[in-house]
Structure formats: C-alpha cells, structure tokens
Amino acid sequence: GYGLIRISPVLNPHPQNLMFPILILALWGILMTSSICLRQTDLKALIAYSSVSHMGLVTAAIIVQTPWGLTGAMTLMIAHGLTSSALFALANTNYERTHTRTLLLVRGLQLAFPLMSTWWLLINLTNMAMPPTINLLGELFIISTLFNWSTPTIIITGIGTLITATYSLYMFLMTQRGSISTQFRLLPPTHTREHLNLILHLLPLGLLIMKPALISGLFT
Fold first, then answer.
1. Percent helix, strand and coil across the chain, each rounded to 5?
2. Where is the NADH:quinone oxidoreductase/Mrp antiporter transmembrane domain (predicted)?
3. 125 partner at 20 to 30 Å CA-CA among 23, 43, 161, 165?
4. Which SS3 state, helix, strand or coil, does residue 112 take?
C-alpha cells in the first residue's frame, strides 16, 4: 500500500480506462475475501483473509488519487497493521495451549482465560471499526472518497463493512463462548509477556484516537 502511494503520483495523470479495472477488482475483492471469512474453520486463515479484505479498501482509495483517499488509506494501513498483528498474537496464544486452530474445537476459552477474552473482545471491536477507533476514521475517509468517485460503490463498501462486523463477531463467539471441551479442562495459564504484547498493540491504537493527525495529516 505504501509503495502504491509513493509510485502513483509518478504515473499521473491516470488514464481512466486503466483505472477502472483495478478499482473494480479491488472492490470485488472486498466482497469475495469477506465472504470467504464467513466459511473459514481455521482461525489463522480467517485473520489472514480479513487482512486481504481491508487491503482491498486501501488499494481502491489509493487509485482514486484524492487527498481524502490517501489519508484514509494511510490511516487504515497503520490501524489494521496493529489490529491484525494483535489478532495473530491471540491466535498463537490459543494454539500454544490447545495445539489446534480449528474453531469448532477451541470454544469456550472465556471460562479458562477471562482476561485473554477481554483482549479478544477489544481487538475484535477494533477490527470491525467500532467508534472511536482510528480504523473507523480510515474507513470513513475511504468510503467517502469512493462514494464521491462513484455513487454505486456505497453498496459494495456497505455490504463489505456489514460482513466484516459479522465475521469479527463470529470469530469472537466461536473462540470464547460456549462450553469448553473436556480435553481442554487443564490448560496452562497465560503469561505476563503475552498480555504485555497485546497492551503494546492496543496502546498505540488508543493513543492515536486522541491525535489521529499524526498519521492522517500527511495528505490533508
């Protein structure tokens, strides 16, 4: 994404007939990868496809080449970089104890790790761009940019946002709620380093809410 931002001004002015296919692919990719997330049984695969879906928004915003689009793209890249990394850290924490990434087998972990379940909830809310996170700020900039470029894009971005919220809740409920399997009754406790790792992901996200201009003011 950063490479596209750096190279795109060199290619200006964009021929319109070359811009349309890339934008259509980026927008279509948002729907496809979001839909794939809904049928995933592997936790890490779900998180990986989630990242691809968010990068479809970033690519579309960069190609439109407006100040709002570039601001939104940069904001969402940084926000999702922290969010996705935290999700992978949580998935690895689960895997180290259960030795499986299958969602159906790792249910009910809230009973075993209540504090870790809190991290799951906060990071999933961030992933679905709940206010007042900077993820929401980036997505609003991008959706506004695409809407100004072409009105029908609001349908695709709106559906993509709805599916994102759906699979984020699905991921949280499948891993944390329900009855825990009998084979996971005796699990080793979480460590301080794991909680510190997650704090170091969420702290920058929280601080950037106070002053989003640090990452969004580059192109305004």
1. 80, 0, 20
2. 1-164
3. 23
4. helix
Query: For residue 118, with 0-12 CB atoms within 10 Å meaning exposed, 13-18 middle and 19 or more buried, which class applies?
Result: middle
> What pTM was computed for the model?
0.89
Tell me the CB-side half-sphere exposure of residue 49, using CA atoms within 13 A: 24
75 with 216: CB under 8 angstroms?
yes
Tell me the sheet residues that pair with 102.
42
Rg, C-alpha atoms of the chain: 19
In a 13 Å sphere around the CA of 115, the CA atoms on its Cβ side amount to 10
Tokens of 131: 């206010």
Q: Is residue 187 packed enough to be buried (19+ CB in 10 Å), middle (13-18) or exposed (0-12)?
A: middle
pLDDT in tens, 79-122: 999 999 999 999 999 898 888 888 888 888 888 888 999 999 99
Over the chain, what is the mean pLDDT?
87
Element (H, E) at 128: none
Instruction: Write out pLDDT tens, residues 138-151.
Output: 999 999 999 998 89
